[in-house]
Amino acid sequence: MKKISFIFVLLITSFYCFAQKIETVKIDSKVYGSREIIIYTPRLYEEYPQKKYEVVYVFDAQARQYFDIVHSSLAFMNSAVPMIVVGVISKERDDDFLPAYIHGETAKMMRDNKGRANDFLKFLKNDIFTYVNKNYRTLPTRLAIGHSNGGVFITYCMVEDPTLFNGYIAISPHMRYDKMQLVDSLQKFDPGKVKREIFYYMSKGNESTTDWEKSINRTREFFNSEKTNKVIHFEYEYFPSETHTTIYPKAVINGFNKWFAYQYNNLNRCKEYYTSLKERDNYTLSEEDLLGHISNHFWAKDYSTAKDFMEWGKSMFPNSRLLADFDKRLGMVQETKAPSIFPEKCLGTWEGTMKIYSYNTLRDSVKVRFTAAKTNVKGIYTWKTEYLSATTPMIKDYKLVIDDLDKGRYKLDEGDGVELIEYNVNNKLYSLFKVNDIWLTATTQLLDDKLIFEVTSGKESNEVKAITNYSFTNVQRVIMTKIE
Q1: Separation in Å, CA 469 to CA 147, 294, 431, 460, 464
Q2: What is residue 133's three-state secondary structure?
């Protein structure tokens, strides 16, 4: 039976990868009359008529390569979660994707187009969604992929109606359109309308114009704001070697990888997701689908997560021979341990906006870039912070040195003879020191996929009996997301 169950998992993967069905259909629309869409269904759609699927909507499908890259990539990426892919064809993409312009200078760029994103949204919601849900076995989970103007449109959808999609992959979105109209419109976004946390992935190529860069940076500031990051999981990637065109295939793959990691790699989130599907759509995770999740983690050599999912599976399907046989295989593997040294976990480049408070009042903010990297000397790491202020930029190019791993003690070498002692406790560095009459605390915390840096400062304020109190004058705090 063990061989049979293992072959079954391989067959599942094979069916997902190499069989497909693609058809073009016409949809009647009150807005446009008649329009075509392209629909891809994986082979298992025919093999298992009880199964339902998440749906990916790809905009700009009149350029067939955009649609083909998406469904072809999906077939190789996650065998546990096959998806229906809908290619949305535009006859005039500027008119479909862009909101009506409000600046006269934009009219010259738009030719005869007025910008009818509002009509296209109605067409999508009332006609395309209705047709797809009526004629295909769909789950309520929808993803949107848009490039350039298409990235503008899917972001416009999020602002106007956050319930339209659960995930967004915006590839080099043209956010500078109409003097950054949509960037300004982001301020209308109402977090209260979000029923379940939204996933938003944005990428940028080597577009170098100042207004393009500024529009992307302003967009990132919105997604990294406290108002937004409570209801939106934001991911950003910069591809310095890719143009506005060549970025598409890489960003599609990376965007999906981050979506799958966000949605399915965390056991608790996965449980919550399938529980919500049961409540909303009366859809129950099957034994075969669960085995697909386990096998994905197994082949990725993430044996610890595979075992966690297996325990969940055994509680749901206690008499499953398939799970029992695969569980034996899991028991024979040796786990690869994740990095246990704090700086190793922080390697990469991170960005965020530092908020600077004084006596509970926000006084300033500045974009910050932090880089952690190995050096040629074992136990010594580059620990560089760049303050990307337009007026007073600053770079603190320090080194973090392992001092005593058993005690979790590190030294932060500032390079001028100053060394701060820091202690690591549960993925958080702590330091306490005094400069002249000012006491400071500094912490660096790795929390899930965020790196949080915070500094506080204050002076001795008063003494009550044997206790000395200190004021909490200033606080600097930044929540950073990994970009490289």
Answers
A1: 55, 53, 18, 6, 8
A2: helix
Residue bearing tokens 């990539």: 73
Q: What is the pLDDT of residues 187-245, one digit of tens each?
A: 888 888 898 899 999 999 999 788 899 999 999 999 988 889 889 999 999 998 899 99
Q: Tokens 């770079």 — which residue? A: 395
- The closest of 291, 284, 331 to 313, measured between CA atoms, is 291
Which residue, 294, 285, 287, is CA-closest to 327?
294
Structure tokens at 343: 């700086």
Q: Which residue has the tokens 């003097």?
A: 179
Instruction: List the structure tokens of 374.
Output: 């190995």
Task: Report the distance separating Cα 226 and Cα 243, nearest Å.
Answer: 31
Return the axis-axis angle of helices 64-77 and 2-18, rounded to nearest 10°. Answer: 170
* Run of H or E including 79: none
Whether the Cβ atoms of residue 56 and residue 85 lie closer than 8 Å to each other: yes
Alpha carbon distance, N-terminus to C-terminus of the chain: 44
> What is the pTM assigned to this prediction?
0.69
Q: Is 289 exposed, middle or buried (0-12, 13-18, 19+ CB in 10 A)?
A: middle
Domains present along the chain, CATH in parentheses: 2-264 (3.40.50.1820), 277-331 (no CATH), 342-482 (2.40.128.20)
